[in-house]
């Protein structure tokens, strides 16, 4: 036998990855995702629908409301609240 030591450096990982692509709709709450090579925890997101009955001075939905449309606003909240959808459910 030989007295010399053999050192192997492995620079290949056989194509294995620590992450994999996933559809946004299949991500579970309190799971982890990677965005721009940084791990992020998925927050608990709630969706609530409200029927619009009045608009304050800073509202941006005034046109449809002034026409007498019956509107439903969808609000998503996680780390803050944001209107994400507006639906016309018919005339008043």
What distinguishing features does this structure have?
Translation initiation factor 5A C-terminal domain-containing protein; IF5A-like_N; translation elongation factor activity; RNA binding; three-stranded antiparallel β-sheet; single chain; mainly beta; two-stranded antiparallel sheet; about 90 residues
Overview of the molecule:
Residues 1-23 are annotated as: Disordered. By secondary structure, this protein is mainly beta. It has one domain. 5% of the residues lie in helices and 37% in strands. The protein is built from one helix and five strands; from the N terminus they run E-E-E-H-E-E. A three-stranded antiparallel sheet has the order 3-4-5. Strand 1 and strand 2 form a beta hairpin. The chain is rod-shaped and about 90 Å long.
Structural class category:
mainly beta
Strand order of the largest sheet: 3-4-5
The oligomeric state is single chain
Query: Given the C-alpha coordinates, what overall shape results?
Result: rod-shaped
Q: Total strand count, please?
A: 5
Spatial extent as radius of gyration? 26 Å
**How far is it from the N-terminal to the C-terminal residue, by CA?**
93 Å
Total count of domains: 1
Mean pLDDT: 78
GO molecular function: ribosome binding; RNA binding; translation elongation factor activity
Protein name: Translation initiation factor 5A C-terminal domain-containing protein
Domain Translation initiation factor 5A C-terminal: 44-87
Region (Disordered): 1-23
Gist of the model:
With 92 residues, the chain is mainly beta.
């Amino acid at each position: 036998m030989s007295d010399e030591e053999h050192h192997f450096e492995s620079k290949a990982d056989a194509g294995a990855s620590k992450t994999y692509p996933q559809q946004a709709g299949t991500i579970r709450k309190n799971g982890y995702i990677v965005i721009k090579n940084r791990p992020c925890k998925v927050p608990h997101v709630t969706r609530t629908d409200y029927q619009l009955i009045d608009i304050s001075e800073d509202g941006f939905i005034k046109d449809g409301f002034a026409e007498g449309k019956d509107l439903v606003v969808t609000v998503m909240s996680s780390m803050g609240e944001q209107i994400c959808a507006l639906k016309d459910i018919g005339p008043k």
